[in-house]
Design a protein that fits this description.
single chain, about 375 residues, Aspartate Aminotransferase, domain 2, Aspartate Aminotransferase, domain 1, 12 strands, about 35% helix, globular
């Protein structure tokens, strides 16, 4: 009898069903060795040479996320920034790249400073505007288009399939930062992306106790081999314990993020009617920019991130964040605990983030408790 394919949630929970062959342990061990024994004839038939290039503890996490993203290979990195910047380091001086005007601020800043010093030309455009993306292409020179969707912290949604078509017509690759969709709600490779990136610190791990990044590719081609070489030669590798923690987090990815996304949608609906809230930014709301695109390319939910714009401006937003008790005032997202942050203060000069905006990362607490805490903080700040 042919067994039907397992659902993605089952694959993640089982860690693809891997069993440690010697002891039959259902949890893979942590490999801490930095080096590996050569064969008698000086070969490495085990496939392992040195831990900076590879580590057996990486294997299960890489294989699991690759399976969830319907890719052919994956690479873990020491951070999301290490994974993201590797994609640009794999290009040549003089190449042109397109990136969103709204995206993770640290990477945007890196592109505007370091990348240009290394000889890359960078155009920032509104990637929700397909005509603007197409107009930004420089024939023969554009080699990579970067998307982040939903995009931090305004949660704009870009049309992956349409931008992939633009990129491929230009002979460029499309790389998608899918951190917020988390290999659960969107699979960019199925929509034509060439590589998908995750800040694995966030939802893939989900416990705010490690920093990691992940790349998954649709093809094992020359670009992918350059990325593998960059990880080994620049040294942006994850520690063994952190790789083990990442796999630990991946096993609960689906129930964590589905619960959090359900709560986020409920909070978005309730906050949209709150007298102290001027606007709610959440792709699950019909009036939000990109909702129709999100309905097409997100399945089973719209993620657990939202932002709210506060009546009374920046001072009221900061006062609201100061008065929460259950929510934690902290950078990052995707953990089991709910976080709140005034992003304009963090991003500083040049940020596209409105000063009246608070970014909310919804965790797995009771949604009524989360709303009650925000409600009292919002009302206190207004008074």
């Amino acid at each position: 009898m042919t067994q039907r394919p397992l659902a993605p949630a089952s694959l993640a929970a089982q860690g693809l069903g891997w069993i440690e062959p010697t002891t039959k342990a259902i949890v893979s061990p942590i490999h801490v060795s930095s080096t590996f024994l050569r064969d008698d004839d000086n070969q490495f038939r085990s496939g392992r040479v040195y831990a900076r290039a590879d580590n057996p503890t990486f294997d299960q996490a890489e294989a699991t996320v690759t399976a969830l993203e319907h890719g052919v290979a994956g690479l873990v990195f020491a951070s999301g920034m290490a994974a993201a910047t590797a994609c640009f380091q794999a290009l040549e001086p003089g190449h042109h790249v397109i990136a969103p005007t709204v995206m993770y601020w640290a990477l945007r800043n890196w592109l505007a400073t370091f990348a240009t010093r290394w000889g890359l030309a960078v155009s920032f455009v509104d990637t929700t505007d397909l005509a603007a993306v197409a107009s930004a292409v420089q024939p023969g020179r554009t080699k990579l288009i970067w998307l982040e969707t939903p995009a931090n912290p305004l949660w704009h949604v870009s049309d992956i399939e349409s931008v992939a078509a633009i990129a491929h017509r230009a002979g460029a690759r499309l790389v998608v930062d899918s951190t917020v969709a988390a290999a659960v709600f969107t699979r960019p490779l199925d929509l034509g992306a060439d590589v998908v990136m995750h800040a694995a610190t966030k939802y893939l791990n989900g416990h705010s106790d490690l920093v990691a990044g992940m790349l998954v590719t649709a093809r094992d081609d020359d670009f992918w081999q350059r990325l593998r070489t960059i990880r080994a030669q620049i040294g942006g590798v994850l520690g063994s314990f952190e790789a083990w923690l990442l796999m630990r987090g991946l096993r609960t990815l689906f129930p964590r993020i589905r619960w959090a996304a359900h709560s986020a949608h409920s909070l978005a609906d309730r906050l949209a009617a709150h007298p102290a809230v001027a606007e709610v930014l959440y792709p699950g709301l019909p009036n939000c920019l990109g909702h129709e695109v999100a309905r097409r390319q997100m399945r089973g939910g719209f993620g657990a991130m939202l932002s709210i714009r506060i009546r009374g401006g920046e001072s009221a937003a900061i006062a609201t964040a100061a008065r929460v008790e259950l929510w934690k005032r902290a950078t990052s997202l995707g953990g089991v605990e709910s976080l709140i942050e005034h992003r304009a203060s963090i991003e500083g000069s040049g940020s596209p983030c409105p000063p009246d905006l608070l970014r909310l990362s919804v965790g797995i607490e009771d949604s009524d408790d989360l709303f009650a805490d925000l409600d009292q903080a919002l009302l206190a700040a207004q008074s």
